[in-house]
């Protein structure tokens, strides 16, 4: 990875920003990503690992495909599967991670695997 970014550290920062944006898209129906990824991000081991795995794969992937170790592809696949599980409600982040709430502070829970929020239609 060092060879992939040694000439331009801004490249790594740009890749990381794009990965955080992608992770936010996966989590945005369940979690308050504005609070999670603000100026003082809320760090959990799982999110740090997911972001690091995807960022490393993309930074190294800037080189020729023959230089990308299979282990990085495996880690990227693992990270993608975790994001899908978080999005679909199969897994959840630790209790301290802010969920989406309504104006009254009530948690807005997804109805079907994170694809639809409970907005009162079925009450």
Would you give an account of this structure?
It is a single chain. By secondary structure, the chain is mostly helical. The chain is built from 5 helices and no strands. Helix 2 (9-27) crosses helix 4 (45-60) and helix 4 (45-60) crosses helix 5 (70-88). The radius of gyration is 17 Å and the shape is elongated.
Structure described in brief:
The protein contains 5 helices and no strands. It has helices at residues 2-5, 9-27, 33-36, 45-60, 70-88.
How would you summarize the topology of this molecule?
Layout: H1 2-5, H2 9-27, H3 33-36, H4 45-60, H5 70-88
Helix pairs in contact: 2-4, 4-5
Helix content: 40-55%
Query: CA-to-CA gap between the ends?
Result: 52 Å
Count of separate DSSP helical elements: 5
Instruction: Report the sheet with the most strands, covering strand number, pairing sense and barrel closure.
Output: none
- The coarse silhouette is elongated
Mind telling me the C-alpha Rg?
17 Å
Structural class: mainly alpha
Instruction: Give the mean pLDDT.
Output: 80
Q: What is the strand tally?
A: 0
Unreliable segments (pLDDT under 50, ≥5 consecutive)?
Answer: 111-123
Order of helices and strands: HHHHH
Task: Report the β-strand fraction as a percent range.
Answer: under 5%
């Amino acid at each position: 990875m060092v060879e992939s970014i040694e000439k331009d550290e801004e490249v790594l920062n740009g890749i990381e920003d794009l990965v955080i944006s992608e992770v936010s898209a996966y989590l945005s129906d369940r979690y308050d990503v504005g609070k999670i990824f603000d100026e003082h991000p809320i760090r959990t081991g799982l999110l740090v690992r997911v972001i690091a795995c995807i960022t490393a794969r993309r930074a190294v992937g800037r080189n020729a495909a023959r230089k990308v170790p299979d282990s990085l592809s495996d880690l990227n696949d693992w990270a993608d599967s975790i994001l899908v599980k978080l999005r679909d409600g199969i897994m959840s982040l630790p209790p301290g991670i802010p969920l989406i709430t309504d104006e009254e502070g009530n948690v807005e829970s997804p109805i079907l695997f994170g694809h639809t929020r409970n907005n009162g239609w079925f009450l």
